[in-house]
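Repro case for the chain-ordering regression, as requested:
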Amino acid sequence: LPGPDKLLRFERAILPHLDAAYNLARWLMRNEDEAADAVQDACLRALRFIGGFRGGDGRVWLLAIVRNSCYSRLKRGASRESETEFDDEIHSSEIETATPEALLERSRDSETLRHALEDLPEEFREIVVMRELEGMAYKQIAEVAGVPIGTVMSRLARAQAPAAGPHSRTAGGVQK
Amino acid sequence: VICEDARTLHAYVDAELDVVRSLVVEAHLSSCAACAREEASLRALRTAFSDGALYHEAPAGLERRVRAAVRDGMESRLN
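-- result from build under test --
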């Protein structure tokens, strides 16, 4: 594809989804600058591969690239981190919250809900973000995350399940 | 089956079921109080998410920055 055509296709199909790209990146990276870098990175890659974009859903196509850029960055960050000494004090609280804890129990206000979503492991967090914040269909989410629709459904159900599982909730609500 | 598998109720609330299965869930909800409570909670959660407070819109300069990077990228390839 010649340069001007590439640029035109990129501007029409990809640029309109910059908010969606940033939202997903921001939730995955948990940091504004890292999210912006990941989006820019993803856009450059999107331009490079735009010839292979066959006019489907530009948002799904871009988000798949954004997600890939984010995970590459997270992996690089994690390998840097593992070189520094492991600090039990800092990490013990993270381990406690690293299970898909009931969003339901923490949906009282948006601040509490924000923290609950931040605490979810990435593979659950990205799916909740695409479903609840981006309003995407299961099929689109499955395409972006590269998993079967059944996996999307299981992760949504697990992330949003009551703490004690269906029908066994106590009157007190949150169970530790 | 609906009581045991949370995914069905989620898919129902997300309007992801076909009409026949939706009708089955609807009938179940009218007779199962526990599932009906669960459905109400799920809808409340969706409402909480949908007020936009948790959505991170792209910062003001990002589109300009991306356009500039894309332009640079194309020029360096031509040269």
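Ordering looks correct now. The longest helix of chain A spans residues 58-81.
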